[in-house]
Write a structure and sequence with these properties.
The chain is of the alpha+beta class and about 400 residues long. It has 17 helices and eight strands. Helix 10 packs antiparallel against helix 12.
Amino acid sequence: MKQKLTDALVAKAALPPGTIDMVLWDSDVSGFGLRIRPAGKTWILAYRPAGAGRCACTKKMKLATLGAVAKVSAARTLAQVELGRIASGADPLAARAQNRIREKARLGDLLDRYDRHLERRQYVNRKDVLVMLRSRMAPLLNRDVATITGAEFAKITDAIREKGLHGAAAHFRTLCRAFLTWCVADAKVLPVNPLAGHRKERATRADRLAKTEKGRALSDADLAKVWAAADPDSTAGRLIRFYILTGCRRGEGAGITWAMLNTGTTVFELPPVFVKQGRGHKVPVTAQLQSLLDLCCRDARSDLVFPSARTGGPMSGWTKLVAGLTKASGVEFTLHDLRRTFRTGLSRLGVDVDTAELALGHARADLEAIYNRDEGLDRLRDAFERWGAFVASLSATAEAQRVAALDNVA
């Protein structure tokens, strides 16, 4: 039954015993009423979209809570405003649903969801991926992803390439395509990938030549200089020496923990989620590496072997660190050059290709049956010991030459 709602009636209205939902309908404004539930009282409006006909289902929309709009007259005005919009062809509930979808499809929010998705999958480089995507797409973060065209994503890639950062441009394009594919297949906010029709540039002859010339393995003289410049009394210096001795990737060295050290076998056992290849990787502790570890002090703030002195967390500021070492040693190099030097050095020392690849963590499926045995570790240890002894000999020779040169000057 309908009745004229008044402030007094609304104030004393209550649920009858045994009921959990009741609506008091207003006789003055069609479809306007007060819904009463155990959680409280809410102003509502029941309506059919314009042109839907009397056979269409009635929709009920929330106007406001009684706490927000206390007076019946004010709530009745809200209802009349909405009825006017409905008469003009609007569907308020449908519009609200579209707004919710748009809010969920905001690029910044989708990147947050993508971050959680990668975390659930234990994606190793999750943080680096999200930093790249958020920084490169910063101007678009508040946009509905459905309104962003493939040309806009491609424009970001072109802008990176125009700065001469061809590798970074290709990397962003790969990460962006993967994210947009997730938006289609998992988040269901896009019908198709906007970059689906944007093909990767075909490599030119110059590109292929540049790729083969990218990076280098340090000469013995340069390696000795970098080793000497890496101060073992500093965490950064010890970390650089760790990279030289093990050939580990930057993230592996920065994130390695004492818990990964198997003291029984004297091997760092890097778990699959920690390694780029998604496989466990073993790093035998040689005499040279043990001497380096003996210089490391345990940090109460973390279990990291090479924690940041400032934060106790993973090391950062790689550009500045390498620049400092370049200046101190007089050798131009990148951290990945140390990995190339390690791999090249193993070949020079007569380590077979398969073992050398395993030493880098480049396990291949066809080698699993061969090296997933005890002797695999023996071969790895032998390779690391050969390299460690070589680096020690190289360092000792360089130091002897330096001392001899000083004596000659004196």
